[in-house]
From TrEMBL:
One of its GO terms (cellular component) is mitochondrion. Keywords: Cytoplasm, Cytoskeleton, Mitochondrion. It is found in: Cytoplasm, Cytoskeleton; Mitochondrion. Its main location: cytoplasm. Residues 156-299 form the DML1/Misato tubulin domain. This is Uncharacterized protein.
């Protein structure tokens, strides 16, 4: 087996990655379906290159992407950072011995799953036999109505990259950068990304996530990275790739650097624009030194006017993911 480990760094890269894994999930479903075309039952297509098999504590087999995702804290929406296949670790109550007064805890309500994720959960319950067959027959009409709302939800109400993700992830896959105290607009330069990777032990923890997937490989073929090449995540990517080069010098790395088209439409002053161009130049120069092949993934054929006609970010990311799949093919 010649495995590939996938890395996704940055908010936009994870949106593209979500489309990519949805495509892989569709291929898996078509390959297993007896009604699908024979072209999808190609025995030379080995999904174990990208996926790993595992087992939960309950003895259930799992099949999850061999992937490490890095993004802001709170960027997973309704999905837990430990995924949905394994038991959640309950936070332990920490007694503050130096405080004698009353202690109150304020916790926000977890985000509710959208209609699309709810429908996926219902389908999985039906597959494992938890749904009543009679109810399935009688609920055809409401299901059709619900499908309409699901489509509307995906077209206009996607806030997080997990909102349209069909794939289950391993607990080691999803990593959130905590303690940044900055939103995506402020996390906008190469230096901030380098500081974020080195601070709060983020670098060590991300390295451990990657090491988990690499060490279980029989013979790793390489690492493919999809990263935001502008803003702070370019610095995070560069530091991560430096660590990979030191620890796995013989493992080739292919890099897809994704550029959010909305970055070119933001109105900004001349001084700020020059600063961004300089950071982008430093980012591209450093990233290109740390990989065997770098492939820019953008929408160069779209002018600013045409890009604005793509009404939702998901439409832009879907186009870029299609372009990425054509490159991989």
């Amino acid at each position: 087996m010649r495995e590939i480990v996938t890395i996704q760094i940055g908010n936009y890269a994870n949106f593209i990655g979500s489309h990519f894994w949805n495509f892989q999930d569709e291929l898996l479903g078509l390959a297993e379906s007896p009604e699908s075309d024979q072209v999808f039952k190609n025995h030379s297509l080995d999904m174990d290159v990208l996926y790993r098999t595992g087992e939960t504590q309950q003895g259930l087999l799992t099949y999850t992407p061999r992937m490490v995702s890095v993004n802001f804290q709170g960027s997973l929406g309704s999905v837990s950072s430990r995924g949905s296949l394994y038991n959640q670790i309950q936070a332990k109550n920490m007694d503050v011995m130096t405080w004698k007064g009353r202690v109150t805890t304020h916790a926000s309500e977890p985000l509710r799953r959208n209609l699309f994720l709810q429908s996926l959960s219902e389908e999985e319950q039906e597959i494992v036999g938890k749904a009543n067959d009679l109810d399935n027959v009688n609920n055809n009409s409401p299901a059709e109505i619900q499908d309409k709302y699901i489509v509307e939800c995906l077209e206009s109400d996607v806030q997080y990259w997990t909102d349209f993700s069909k794939v289950h992830y391993h607990p080691q896959s999803l990593y959130e950068l905590s303690g940044l105290w900055a939103d995506i607009q402020e996390f906008d330069n190469y230096g901030l990304g380098k500081e974020a990777f080195c601070g709060h032990q983020h670098g060590e923890e991300i390295d451990d996530r990657l090491r988990f997937f690499v060490e279980e490989c029989d013979h790793i073929q390489g690492i493919q990275c999809v990263v935001d090449d502008a803003g702070g995540f370019s610095g995070v990517s560069a530091m991560f790739l430096e660590s990979i080069a030191d620890e796995y010098p013989n493992v080739p790395v292919i890099l897809y650097n994704a550029r959010n088209p909305s970055l070119h439409m933001d109105s900004e002053g001349r001084k700020q624009a020059i600063s961004h161009y300089l950071h982008d130049a430093v980012s591209f120069s450093r990233l290109s030194e740390l990989c065997k092949l770098i492939i820019p993934v953008e929408l160069p054929s779209f002018s600013a006017l045409k890009t604005k006609s793509l009404t939702t970010p998901v439409q832009c990311m879907r186009l870029q993911c299609t372009h990425l799949l054509s490159l991989l093919g």
